[in-house]
Amino acid sequence: MTILIEQPALELQVEGNNVHAEETNELVLEGGFPLPKDGYMAPEINSFGHSFREYDAESERQKGVEEFYRLQHINQTYDFVKRMREEYGKLDKAEMGIWECCELLNELVDESDPDLDEPQIQHLLQSAETIRKDYPNEDWLHLTALIHDLGKILALPSFGELPQWAVVGDTFPLGCAFDESNVHHKYFKDNPDYKCPAYSTKNGIYTEGCGLDNIVMSWGHDDYMYMVAKANGTTLPSAGLFIIRYHSFYPLHKEGAYTHFMNEEDVENLKWLKIFNKSKVLVDVEKVKPYYVSLIEKYFPAKVRW
Ligand SMILES: [Fe+2]
Ligand SMILES: [Fe+2]
Protein backbone atom coordinates (compact mmCIF):
# COMPACT_ATOMS: atom_id res chain seq x y z
CA MET A 1 0.00 0.00 0.00
CA THR A 2 1.15 3.51 -0.75
CA ILE A 3 0.11 6.05 1.84
CA LEU A 4 0.30 9.28 -0.09
CA ILE A 5 0.04 11.65 2.83
CA GLU A 6 0.55 10.86 6.44
CA GLN A 7 -2.25 12.95 7.86
CA PRO A 8 -4.69 15.08 5.89
CA ALA A 9 -4.73 18.68 7.08
CA LEU A 10 -8.24 18.21 8.21
CA GLU A 11 -10.07 21.10 9.74
CA LEU A 12 -12.91 20.23 12.00
CA GLN A 13 -14.92 23.28 12.72
CA VAL A 14 -17.38 23.46 15.53
CA GLU A 15 -19.36 26.68 15.72
CA GLY A 16 -16.61 28.92 14.48
CA ASN A 17 -13.75 27.28 16.31
CA ASN A 18 -11.13 25.91 14.01
CA VAL A 19 -9.66 22.86 15.57
CA HIS A 20 -6.88 21.08 13.80
CA ALA A 21 -7.31 17.43 14.50
CA GLU A 22 -3.67 16.65 13.86
CA GLU A 23 -2.55 19.18 16.43
CA THR A 24 -4.82 18.52 19.31
CA ASN A 25 -6.17 15.05 18.69
CA GLU A 26 -9.32 16.16 20.36
CA LEU A 27 -12.19 18.35 19.44
CA VAL A 28 -13.40 21.15 21.60
CA LEU A 29 -17.04 21.97 21.49
CA GLU A 30 -18.41 25.39 22.10
CA GLY A 31 -18.20 25.99 25.81
CA GLY A 32 -14.91 24.13 26.08
CA PHE A 33 -16.35 20.64 26.33
CA PRO A 34 -13.62 18.35 25.06
CA LEU A 35 -14.41 15.34 22.94
CA PRO A 36 -11.76 12.71 23.47
CA LYS A 37 -10.80 11.33 20.09
CA ASP A 38 -11.25 7.76 21.17
CA GLY A 39 -12.07 7.84 24.82
CA TYR A 40 -15.84 7.68 24.91
CA MET A 41 -17.72 4.50 24.55
CA ALA A 42 -19.93 4.28 21.53
CA PRO A 43 -20.68 0.58 21.55
CA GLU A 44 -23.14 -1.09 19.25
CA ILE A 45 -23.78 2.15 17.51
CA ASN A 46 -24.20 1.06 14.00
CA SER A 47 -26.87 -1.46 14.10
CA PHE A 48 -26.85 -2.99 10.69
CA GLY A 49 -28.84 -6.14 11.17
CA HIS A 50 -27.30 -6.61 14.54
CA SER A 51 -29.06 -7.53 17.69
CA PHE A 52 -28.91 -4.37 19.75
CA ARG A 53 -31.49 -2.02 18.33
CA GLU A 54 -33.46 -1.92 21.57
CA TYR A 55 -32.62 1.70 22.25
CA ASP A 56 -35.13 1.94 25.05
CA ALA A 57 -34.02 -1.21 26.78
CA GLU A 58 -32.01 -0.91 29.95
CA SER A 59 -28.40 -1.80 29.34
CA GLU A 60 -25.05 -0.64 30.52
CA ARG A 61 -24.25 0.29 26.98
CA GLN A 62 -27.14 2.66 26.69
CA LYS A 63 -25.45 5.65 28.26
CA GLY A 64 -22.50 5.30 25.89
CA VAL A 65 -24.76 5.03 22.90
CA GLU A 66 -26.75 8.06 24.00
CA GLU A 67 -23.63 10.14 24.51
CA PHE A 68 -22.42 9.07 21.09
CA TYR A 69 -25.65 10.23 19.48
CA ARG A 70 -25.61 13.50 21.43
CA LEU A 71 -22.24 14.30 19.91
CA GLN A 72 -23.24 13.07 16.47
CA HIS A 73 -26.46 15.07 16.39
CA ILE A 74 -24.77 18.28 17.51
CA ASN A 75 -21.78 18.06 15.18
CA GLN A 76 -23.13 16.65 11.93
CA THR A 77 -24.20 19.80 10.13
CA TYR A 78 -24.76 20.55 6.46
CA ASP A 79 -21.55 22.58 6.36
CA PHE A 80 -19.55 19.89 8.13
CA VAL A 81 -20.63 17.28 5.59
CA LYS A 82 -19.80 19.61 2.70
CA ARG A 83 -16.28 20.05 4.07
CA MET A 84 -15.82 16.32 4.60
CA ARG A 85 -17.03 15.47 1.09
CA GLU A 86 -14.65 18.03 -0.35
CA GLU A 87 -11.68 16.81 1.68
CA TYR A 88 -12.24 13.10 1.10
CA GLY A 89 -13.38 13.61 -2.48
CA LYS A 90 -9.74 14.37 -3.27
CA LEU A 91 -8.93 10.68 -2.82
CA ASP A 92 -5.39 11.62 -1.96
CA LYS A 93 -5.00 9.61 1.22
CA ALA A 94 -3.73 6.30 -0.15
CA GLU A 95 -3.54 3.90 -3.05
CA MET A 96 -4.27 0.27 -2.31
CA GLY A 97 -6.34 -2.65 -3.53
CA ILE A 98 -9.68 -3.59 -2.03
CA TRP A 99 -8.40 -6.76 -0.35
CA GLU A 100 -5.47 -4.80 1.01
CA CYS A 101 -7.98 -2.44 2.58
CA CYS A 102 -9.87 -5.35 4.15
CA GLU A 103 -6.63 -6.37 5.82
CA LEU A 104 -5.87 -2.80 6.83
CA LEU A 105 -9.28 -2.38 8.44
CA ASN A 106 -8.60 -5.55 10.35
CA GLU A 107 -5.83 -3.70 12.18
CA LEU A 108 -8.34 -1.22 13.49
CA VAL A 109 -8.74 -2.11 17.12
CA ASP A 110 -11.17 0.22 18.76
CA GLU A 111 -13.23 -1.05 21.64
CA SER A 112 -15.94 1.45 20.91
CA ASP A 113 -16.59 0.08 17.46
CA PRO A 114 -19.85 -1.85 17.30
CA ASP A 115 -18.54 -4.64 15.11
CA LEU A 116 -15.44 -5.34 17.08
CA ASP A 117 -16.53 -8.21 19.21
CA GLU A 118 -14.87 -9.97 16.29
CA PRO A 119 -12.09 -8.99 13.87
CA GLN A 120 -13.37 -6.61 11.21
CA ILE A 121 -12.47 -9.02 8.44
CA GLN A 122 -14.78 -11.60 10.03
CA HIS A 123 -17.63 -9.11 10.01
CA LEU A 124 -17.00 -8.32 6.34
CA LEU A 125 -16.75 -11.94 5.28
CA GLN A 126 -19.69 -13.06 7.40
CA SER A 127 -21.87 -10.44 5.77
CA ALA A 128 -20.66 -11.54 2.35
CA GLU A 129 -20.91 -15.30 2.94
CA THR A 130 -24.39 -14.97 4.44
CA ILE A 131 -25.77 -13.12 1.47
CA ARG A 132 -23.90 -15.43 -0.91
CA LYS A 133 -25.81 -18.39 0.53
CA ASP A 134 -29.15 -16.69 -0.02
CA TYR A 135 -28.33 -15.16 -3.40
CA PRO A 136 -25.62 -17.39 -4.92
CA ASN A 137 -25.87 -15.87 -8.40
CA GLU A 138 -25.69 -12.20 -7.42
CA ASP A 139 -21.93 -11.95 -7.17
CA TRP A 140 -22.10 -8.13 -7.06
CA LEU A 141 -24.06 -8.50 -3.82
CA HIS A 142 -21.34 -10.69 -2.29
CA LEU A 143 -18.71 -8.09 -3.05
CA THR A 144 -20.94 -5.25 -1.87
CA ALA A 145 -21.29 -6.99 1.48
CA LEU A 146 -17.55 -7.56 1.68
CA ILE A 147 -16.72 -3.89 1.18
CA HIS A 148 -19.70 -2.20 2.85
CA ASP A 149 -17.73 -1.19 5.96
CA LEU A 150 -14.31 -0.44 4.46
CA GLY A 151 -14.96 3.27 4.94
CA LYS A 152 -14.29 2.74 8.64
CA ILE A 153 -10.63 3.34 7.82
CA LEU A 154 -11.62 6.98 8.42
CA ALA A 155 -10.83 6.21 12.06
CA LEU A 156 -7.21 5.35 11.22
CA PRO A 157 -4.48 8.00 11.63
CA SER A 158 -3.50 7.92 7.93
CA PHE A 159 -7.08 8.70 6.97
CA GLY A 160 -7.72 11.59 9.32
CA GLU A 161 -8.47 9.67 12.51
CA LEU A 162 -11.98 11.08 12.55
CA PRO A 163 -13.96 10.90 15.80
CA GLN A 164 -16.52 8.13 16.16
CA TRP A 165 -19.46 10.42 15.45
CA ALA A 166 -17.98 11.15 12.00
CA VAL A 167 -17.38 7.48 11.15
CA VAL A 168 -20.16 5.24 12.47
CA GLY A 169 -23.74 5.39 13.70
CA ASP A 170 -27.09 5.73 11.99
CA THR A 171 -27.11 8.29 9.21
CA PHE A 172 -29.69 10.94 8.28
CA PRO A 173 -30.18 13.74 5.76
CA LEU A 174 -29.00 17.31 6.34
CA GLY A 175 -30.64 20.35 4.77
CA CYS A 176 -34.15 19.43 5.88
CA ALA A 177 -35.97 18.82 9.15
CA PHE A 178 -34.64 16.00 11.33
CA ASP A 179 -37.32 13.33 11.33
CA GLU A 180 -38.63 12.26 14.73
CA SER A 181 -37.75 8.66 13.99
CA ASN A 182 -34.04 9.44 14.28
CA VAL A 183 -32.72 7.77 17.40
CA HIS A 184 -32.26 10.24 20.30
CA HIS A 185 -33.90 12.93 18.21
CA LYS A 186 -33.92 15.43 21.09
CA TYR A 187 -30.22 16.14 20.71
CA PHE A 188 -30.76 17.73 17.30
CA LYS A 189 -32.03 20.77 19.18
CA ASP A 190 -28.41 21.71 19.81
CA ASN A 191 -27.43 21.28 16.16
CA PRO A 192 -26.80 24.71 14.55
CA ASP A 193 -28.86 23.58 11.52
CA TYR A 194 -31.88 23.07 13.76
CA LYS A 195 -32.41 26.82 13.98
CA CYS A 196 -31.80 27.46 10.28
CA PRO A 197 -35.18 28.24 8.66
CA ALA A 198 -34.12 26.89 5.24
CA TYR A 199 -33.38 23.49 6.81
CA SER A 200 -36.38 23.33 9.10
CA THR A 201 -39.20 22.22 6.82
CA LYS A 202 -39.99 18.65 5.79
CA ASN A 203 -38.42 19.13 2.34
CA GLY A 204 -35.91 21.80 3.37
CA ILE A 205 -33.66 22.64 0.41
CA TYR A 206 -34.89 19.61 -1.56
CA THR A 207 -37.99 18.71 -3.52
CA GLU A 208 -40.17 15.67 -3.18
CA GLY A 209 -39.00 12.74 -5.30
CA CYS A 210 -35.65 14.42 -6.02
CA GLY A 211 -33.80 11.13 -5.46
CA LEU A 212 -31.55 10.20 -2.54
CA ASP A 213 -28.55 10.92 -4.74
CA ASN A 214 -29.31 14.61 -4.36
CA ILE A 215 -29.58 14.49 -0.57
CA VAL A 216 -26.64 15.46 1.62
CA MET A 217 -26.31 12.66 4.18
CA SER A 218 -24.51 12.86 7.51
CA TRP A 219 -20.83 12.01 7.06
CA GLY A 220 -19.40 8.60 7.87
CA HIS A 221 -17.99 5.34 6.53
CA ASP A 222 -21.01 4.76 4.29
CA ASP A 223 -20.72 7.95 2.26
CA TYR A 224 -16.92 7.73 2.12
CA MET A 225 -16.89 4.19 0.71
CA TYR A 226 -19.57 5.16 -1.78
CA MET A 227 -17.40 8.06 -2.99
CA VAL A 228 -14.34 5.82 -3.26
CA ALA A 229 -16.16 3.11 -5.22
CA LYS A 230 -17.79 5.54 -7.60
CA ALA A 231 -14.74 7.72 -8.24
CA ASN A 232 -12.58 4.67 -8.93
CA GLY A 233 -14.97 3.54 -11.63
CA THR A 234 -16.35 0.39 -10.03
CA THR A 235 -18.69 -1.57 -12.26
CA LEU A 236 -20.88 -2.59 -9.33
CA PRO A 237 -24.55 -1.95 -10.20
CA SER A 238 -26.40 1.00 -8.69
CA ALA A 239 -28.07 -1.27 -6.11
CA GLY A 240 -24.60 -2.17 -4.79
CA LEU A 241 -23.62 1.47 -4.47
CA PHE A 242 -26.98 2.18 -2.84
CA ILE A 243 -26.38 -0.50 -0.20
CA ILE A 244 -22.93 0.87 0.55
CA ARG A 245 -24.16 4.43 0.83
CA TYR A 246 -27.36 3.91 2.82
CA HIS A 247 -26.80 0.79 4.92
CA SER A 248 -26.73 2.95 8.10
CA PHE A 249 -29.71 5.03 7.02
CA TYR A 250 -32.00 3.32 9.53
CA PRO A 251 -34.59 6.09 9.61
CA LEU A 252 -35.28 5.18 5.97
CA HIS A 253 -34.96 1.43 5.75
CA LYS A 254 -36.15 0.57 9.23
CA GLU A 255 -38.58 3.38 10.09
CA GLY A 256 -39.79 4.38 6.63
CA ALA A 257 -38.90 8.06 7.14
CA TYR A 258 -37.67 10.35 4.37
CA THR A 259 -39.21 8.11 1.70
CA HIS A 260 -40.76 11.19 0.05
CA PHE A 261 -37.30 12.02 -1.32
CA MET A 262 -36.95 8.70 -3.13
CA ASN A 263 -37.24 8.35 -6.89
CA GLU A 264 -38.12 5.15 -8.76
CA GLU A 265 -34.56 3.87 -8.81
CA ASP A 266 -34.29 4.36 -5.05
CA VAL A 267 -37.47 2.35 -4.52
CA GLU A 268 -35.97 -0.54 -6.52
CA ASN A 269 -32.62 -0.32 -4.76
CA LEU A 270 -34.20 -0.18 -1.32
CA LYS A 271 -35.48 -3.73 -1.84
CA TRP A 272 -31.90 -4.96 -2.07
CA LEU A 273 -30.83 -2.98 0.96
CA LYS A 274 -33.58 -4.57 3.03
CA ILE A 275 -32.37 -8.10 2.35
CA PHE A 276 -28.95 -7.35 3.76
CA ASN A 277 -28.22 -9.26 6.96
CA LYS A 278 -25.51 -10.86 9.01
CA SER A 279 -24.64 -14.14 10.62
CA LYS A 280 -22.30 -15.13 13.41
CA VAL A 281 -20.76 -18.16 11.71
CA LEU A 282 -16.99 -18.05 11.75
CA VAL A 283 -15.51 -17.77 8.29
CA ASP A 284 -12.23 -19.34 7.18
CA VAL A 285 -10.62 -16.31 5.60
CA GLU A 286 -8.01 -18.18 3.54
CA LYS A 287 -10.61 -20.55 2.17
CA VAL A 288 -12.95 -17.90 0.83
CA LYS A 289 -10.32 -15.30 -0.09
CA PRO A 290 -9.74 -16.51 -3.71
CA TYR A 291 -13.42 -16.11 -4.53
CA TYR A 292 -13.55 -12.54 -3.26
CA VAL A 293 -10.26 -11.61 -4.88
CA SER A 294 -11.76 -12.73 -8.19
CA LEU A 295 -14.80 -10.51 -7.59
CA ILE A 296 -12.59 -7.55 -6.70
CA GLU A 297 -10.75 -8.02 -10.01
CA LYS A 298 -14.09 -8.12 -11.81
CA TYR A 299 -15.54 -4.94 -10.31
CA PHE A 300 -12.58 -2.73 -9.29
CA PRO A 301 -9.21 -1.59 -10.64
CA ALA A 302 -6.18 -3.27 -9.01
CA LYS A 303 -5.15 -0.02 -7.34
CA VAL A 304 -7.90 2.06 -5.80
CA ARG A 305 -7.48 5.68 -4.76
CA TRP A 306 -8.79 6.41 -1.25
FE1 LIG B 1 -21.48 -0.11 8.35
FE1 LIG C 1 -21.39 -3.61 8.90
From TrEMBL:
One family name in Pfam for this protein: MIOX
Database matches in InterPro entries: Inositol_oxygenase (IPR007828)
Record: residues binding substrate: 53, 110-112, 152, 169-170, 247-248
Cofactor(s) needed for function: Fe cation
Note accompanying the cofactor annotation: Binds 2 iron ions per subunit.
Enzyme class: oxidoreductase
Entry's EC annotation: 1.13.99.1
Location(s) in or outside the cell: Cytoplasm
Protein's GO biological process: inositol catabolic process; L-ascorbic acid biosynthetic process
Underlying gene: LOC100788665
Gene Ontology molecular function: any one: iron ion binding
Superkingdom of source: Eukaryota
Record key words, sorted: Ascorbate biosynthesis, Cytoplasm, Iron, Metal-binding, Oxidoreductase
Listed name of the protein: Inositol oxygenase
Major place of residence: cytoplasm
